[in-house]
Queue: 4 jobs
Job 1
Amino acid sequence: MTSRELICDFGILRELRRRENMSIADLSVRSGVAASVISKLERNQNTAEMETLYRIARVFGLTLSDLISLAENRTSHRVTAERYRSGDFEFDRVNYGNMRCMHAAAKKGAKLSTPELHRDDYELCWVLRGHLRVSLPNESCDLTRGMSVQFDALLPHTYETLEDTELIIVHLHKGKRF
């Protein structure tokens, strides 16, 4: 094996193709990679050059690293929630490489301004029960059961409960911008 080859489970290519209703021949034409190479990759019967993987990844709108990550991470990843308190809110949080999910509960009148844990993320807040006000620099959103809002997590923001509230907050890491 040369330094330009990878050993991964590229059976994921079959799943990607089927999701896009694409045959091996279609993928071959669109990527410029021989159908026999794609077939062997899908069955893990050979390794691939980086250029080959790059060309295939582009057909699916993926980066080379995204495709390799899919091929390397074919199993689930379990974590255990950690409990913590921030302001008047009680949280259970799970952390993954590209996201953090927090389940929170707070009594009426609880307030939390610019919560910690922020990096260059998108933040989604989804109210499971109760009534919550989310204040951002140029707007305020009142959310009740079933409603959600998404915004740039780096913006100053405040959560204020207008009645006992249960919510989920998700921080989704932004992809590389350049």
Note: The helical segments are 12-19, 24-31, 35-42, 50-59, 64-72.
Job 2
Amino acid sequence: MIIDTSAIVLKTIQFSESSLIVSLLSEKHGKIPVMARGARRNKNKFGGLLHPGALLDVTYYYKSTREVQNLSDITQNRPTWRINQQMEKMAIGLATLELCDQLCHEYEPMPEISVFLNEFLGWLHATESNPRYLFPYIQFRLAQLAGIGIAWQQIEQHEESLVRENEHDSQYECYLNVENGTIAFKADNGLSLGLTKSQGDYLRYIAEGKKARLLTVSFPADEIRNLIHHLDAYFQFHLDGMKGRRSDAIFEQIL
């Protein structure tokens, strides 16, 4: 069966001296591995477009009994080449692709993640803003799209004051309660991770629809780094098989 669909390149693996195995996030089949024969040759029909983060229209031959499908043809859907020209863009782009690769299962359509990733990569290519602090937002949104979203625990203003008085000796502004998936001013009885004021403000901007502020406010780099680790712990608690990202070695250089 010949399949024509839009797709995002999640990663590539060298196969033989001339070919690549490419992991695509496709509209029709979700994450799907395809064989790009001859893609490593200097002159090939894929034209150097098979790189992580590429937004493509692809044609492949699909057979349900085959683990790796055969890639036939590709064309660029939207440009993303500017992402690899700036360290901050490349780092957050690779980290986002690697997280999506872990969240998506082969041959299981994930349309909401696909749409989000397509829009984000297009924005990342075009933006003049520095995205260095944006990855916790990506984690937060992908948790929502993967069905394990984090919710703010509603609290009345007078109750908030009482909680803060009782917690006056604590260094934490609020807590990520991992087991029940909430952010609250008080830790629950399960696994809870304390969040500083800067970390709490960061997540509050997301909750209040003020994500543009994440691009203009200067957050302490070590606190952003710790917030990323907290959200990674949240993913690992709720989803089996989540691993550390190899791209973090690059990502750490921008914080």
Note: The helical segments are 87-103, 111-126, 135-145, 157-166, 197-207, 221-238, 248-251.
Job 3
Amino acid sequence: MTRVKRGKIATKKRKKILKYTKGFRWGRKSKERAAKEALLHAWSHAFRGRKEKKRNYRALWQIQINAASRALGLPYNKFISGLKKQNILLDRKILADIAKNHPAVFEKITQKTK
């Protein structure tokens, strides 16, 4: 019988894990067990981070809208309730962008909501 060399798939799997850990510090980039553990943590943090990013941006937009609307004499909560009553369907991302880049347009929107 001919000799059978084993472990092709296992080696491939290990190499793949080590490829993902490129740039990690100390033994976590080169030692298989440490690399696997580091990746489990890194990917869970990355998943959580993607959710947090959405929260952070929404909070930022609210702050920007509040600052712009208060400058025009209308607090954030009154501004948002006015938008809903007037049936103006602009989301916070767009409103924050308008407030920052097109203050004249934002002023007209604020006048509508008063």
Note: Helices lie at 8-20, 32-71, 76-85, 92-101, 103-113.
Job 4
Amino acid sequence: MTSIASPCVNICQLDADAETCTGCGRTRAEIGGWMFMSAEERAAVMARLAQARAAEADA
């Protein structure tokens, strides 16, 4: 099983609501728990991030 790298882009700043990172789009909980997540959990986060980017591009 391959490891899923962090989506961090070194722009670590929470949005105005302090809910998501403006750089990578992860929530506070996802950032804090990344090291402890299973590969399946990480893949789910990555899929959510991809969907969010696609929705933003369509807007």
Note: The CA atoms of residues 8 and 24 lie 5 Å apart.
